[in-house]
Amino acid sequence: MPVTTPSPRHSDPGAAAPGAPTLRPGTLGTSDIAFFVVSAAAPLTVMAGVAPLAILLGGVGAPVGYLLAGLTLAVFAVGFTAMSRHVRGAGAFYAYITRGLGRRVGIGAALLALLGYNGMEIGVYGLLGTATQDTVHALSGAHVPWLPVSLAGLLLIGYGGYRSIDFGAKVLGVLLAAETGILVLLAAGVLLKGGAHGLSASSFAPSHVLVPGMAAVLAFAFAAFTGFESTVIYRREARDPARTVPRATYLAVGFLGLFYAFVVWIAIQAFGDAEVVRAAGDDPAGLFFSAISTYVGGWAADTMHVLIVTSVLASLLAFHNAINRYGLALAEEGVLPRALARVHPRHRSPYVTGIAQTVLGAAVVLAFAAAGADPYQQLLLWVNTPGMLGLLVLQLLAALAVPLYFRRVSHHEGVLRTVVAPVTAAVLLSAAIVLVVTHLDLFTGASAAVNTALVAVVPLIFLAGFPLACWLRRHRPGVYERFAAEPADDTGAAAAP
């Protein structure tokens, strides 16, 4: 059973002083939170940049891979959102994992969350540089160096995180509408013209789905959903979080799964079942641009080039906001320095955490540039990959935490939500992690030694939480006992497993 200890929130070592500014409650609705989550996934970038490889490897059955990944994560969301109604702490993943699996595992999960979200953001600054290079070259033939673009992006995203959360939601709403809109325009062109040889449903035939390459497609598909679970990070700023957070989670998963599958199917129809694999192999980077030029016009391809850049910026801003709130929560816990818990008095944003994250990002980008590393092959892929794996492992740990948590507390949730769905999700997520690890060379294009090192980072960071937990228990017992506790403003007490 949980141990309940009276502990006013403001007495925590990292908590804000009485009267200090806090995050602005009641600001975000369901659509606002969904914008953050879907923007982090960068649908246009994923489709134009990765989907051609999925088609090349999995053939015309590739759309089903995205549906299966979405279905798996929807099953995960059943238990995850059920637990969200009971766990009101600000630590998202690590709070859930702590409540189900204990503080030591939870502290390891907190470190893994920092790795995961920072890795998913910082590596993308390399993609921002190369995407901007490609766009400028495609539109004007000029060449721009990637480093100034990435550093400018760091400053721009830092400013976006410094501003209020509703400012970020409005920006992401506009950018997301633009990037999904161009894909809808492509779809309309293909559907109106009937595709290359008429519309076909053969993508969903078992003979095209049950092929060896589908394992690789599933690995790409699960990676395409990374960050969807961050809905719970915005709990403190949500309107009616008990309803808003689950709705936003299901909305994000449902939209991404159906939209990804639909757009990949559209790309197949644009070239035809017999020709699309060859087209993807001949020019994977140009597949979507060629399709939209043919079915809509060259101006639409030019617009897509620009929107790739804004898609990357939207993803960066979404991950930056998520990282800032994780850092704020850990500073309030007393695990990170107390200064990181400061909230801007006017914008009500975790601006000190945001500044620290921007400085960290700049340090990593400059280090890769100084080493002469390739911004895409190394900065993006080598930094992103441990981040992606870290978030998949966190999803697995959260799925395992759900049934253990509900065994310890009184509740009125059904067995489907508290046992069947999370256990099923844990099995499926384990399979997803195996698929990603065994196909890692498709993500990185790196040597076996590099891939081994990238994978090894994830368990090493997680296991580092165990000695940290022991140190906290011995030297800062108050911090340890209150880690991932329920906030006093919700319950009047801080409870921890």
Automatic annotation (TrEMBL):
The Amino acid permease/ SLC12A domain, residue ranges: 37-476
Presence of the UniProt keyword Ubl conjugation in the record: no
Classification via Pfam families: AA_permease
Membrane topology classification: Multi-pass membrane protein
Span list, region Disordered: 1-21
Cell membrane is among the record's keywords: no
Matching InterPro entries: AA-permease/SLC12A_dom, APC_superfamily
Subcellular location: Membrane
Membrane-crossing segments per the record: 33-58, 64-84, 105-128, 140-159, 171-192, 204-228, 248-268, 288-319, 351-373, 379-406, 418-440, 452-472
Record's keyword terms, sorted: Membrane, Transmembrane, Transmembrane helix
Protein's name according to its UniProt entry: APC family permease
Species of the source: Streptomyces andamanensis
